[in-house]
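Hello forum,

I keep getting stuck at the same step: I have a sequence, I want structure tokens, and every attempt I make locally crashes halfway through. Rather than fight my setup again tonight, could one of you with a working pipeline run this one for me? It's a single chain of 672 residues.
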Amino acid sequence: MSAIPQDVRARYEKLKVAVNRYRRLYHVYDKEEISAEALDSLKRELVGLETAHPSLIAPDSPSQRVAGRPLSGFKKVRHKVAQWSFNDAFTPEDIRAFDERVKRFLRPSLGETHPTYVCELKIDGLKVILEYEKGILINAATRGDGAVGEDVTQNIKTIESVPLALERPVDIIVEGEVWMSSKNLEALNKAQEKVGKPPFANPRNVAAGSIRQLDPGIAASRKLDMFIYDVAQTSEAMPATQAEELDYLRELGFKVNPHHTLVKDIDGSVEFWEAWKKKGRHQEYWTDGVVIKVNEKKHQDVLGYTGKAPRFAIAFKFPAEQVTTILEDIVFQIGRTGVVTPVAHLRPVSVAGSTVSRATLHNEDEINRLDVRIGDTVVLQKAGDVIPEIVEVVKDLRPKNSKPFKWPATIPECGGDGRIERVPGQAAWRCVDKKSFAVSRRVFHNFAGKHALDIEGLGKKTVDLLLEQGLIQHFDDIFTLEEGDVLALEGFAEVSARKLIESIQSSREVELSRLLVGLSIPHIGEETAILLAQEFRSLDALAAASVEKLNAIDGMGDIMAKAVHEWFHEKENLKLISRLKQVLIIKTHEATPHGTLPLAGKTYVLTGSLKSMSRDEAKEKLRALGADVSASVSKKTTAVIAGEEYGSKLEKARELEVAVLTEAEFLRMIRQ
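Reply #2:
Ran it on my machine without issues. Output:
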């Protein structure tokens, strides 16, 4: 490779410095020294030199903001500095109590002291931690659980206000918030509408979802921004105050939110909060409060941290956005420990940027305090802009003949006789049968599982979260969930919430046999469910079947027949069936012309694992050829198909002198 001429190298360095400088002036300081067209011309020249001389490319080159192919997944990153969250305050009284705690904690070390405070807007976006070595960005990671986050460096590089190189070769770790402007959200939603996709609800969720895109090109197209607000670690001298730290960050080339102030006492912070709580939502970025920090670093060092938050700082949240809607029902959630929580089912309404249809009512005392009744118009808000809660009843709009809500003596979901009891000394009630939640979890896992409704994205962990938050209580509740309900769950952002709701909606059309598997009818597995679906062809016909008719089906026994008959004659199950028929399209099982298929009248049993396909795929192939697939070996079994690591079914086949096919023989059979 020929050497790069010195004049070319010098030109490249000047171009790189100039383009980075003009970009920083525009994206960090809102200054435009040259036109956008002129800047584009310089960038084209720089990229042209890099194309001709690839060894010139530097990590802080503007061309490296979007680089590399889409990732297959995000790497985990262990933070070098632990990441904390703030405790919250909601009233001036909370803030004055915080001030008293600070002074009380400082007194033993410093005597009577009067700390000053810095007030900063709390940006409502996604926290990201940036690490620089010798002034060059080497890593960007999400907060995660505070100890381990995800490597999102490629996506962060696409944000124009994030410097790839600092003003000095410092080793530093900083923290900040990624956000999207309302203007860019509007443009993005117009583009979504043009291609027939649903709009995004709010900029916070778009920011979080964009940073977690595996393709950095998508993140780049979203035109995100970022404010830096804290130094976690630096190789230079740490500034003596919080106010000086913000100046230090700006001096290094970071974009710092301009709306912060130093106040002499806690009353000044309350005044700052009062001034911003109305205009905070009218900025180009979302804010959900004010972060108040002790200004003096020496005081911060003395105050230190609790198990989860700094003692020297607190988030003073703005009042939550409030809307009104109709309370349509009150249902009960059974928690892990059997605690019963009333949950309001609401007419879907948009609040704080997302649609919700559920809200906790906490306990019996809260229902009595609010005097909330079914049919009431209620005032809804998001606590901390995340969890929906009812704060008031509009009694002027109460329907005539409404009745106070009566707390039940029993709840069927509690199992057994359904009895509940008040927890001594608490407002909570709980199931007498403590095992009920475990049972509930298992049946919901089965209902959403691959052999039943096969709802993609609704795995065990998500089911548990939905149950614990009271978002679902019965199977049909799954199909009334809104995107905003799911957003309240840990680990969900806008895109993942929307995908789950789309997946749920696409699962509304279900085969009868799969629904029967999902209902967790005692003794009824996949094979028996198929037999029942083939015999009765509809849910109504099956529900009306007598024990004798059920018992007459080849493959059904007395115990199975009685279990099915009893299940379809329980009131709660009949109510469930009625509700499911309103939200599902249950495909009537069409009679299959088995007599014309090559394996008609034959029954096979599978045991062990197959190399060429899954057990489910093998079953589908056999049924497509007219065969029945059974879970157990009997004298009526045509053959057992044995894969690797076979079980006791093979021994049973030999005992009954039933034919055994190897995987190779099975494959030859279905090919023929």
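DSSP finds 24 helices and 24 strands in the chain. If your local run keeps crashing, start a new thread with the error log.
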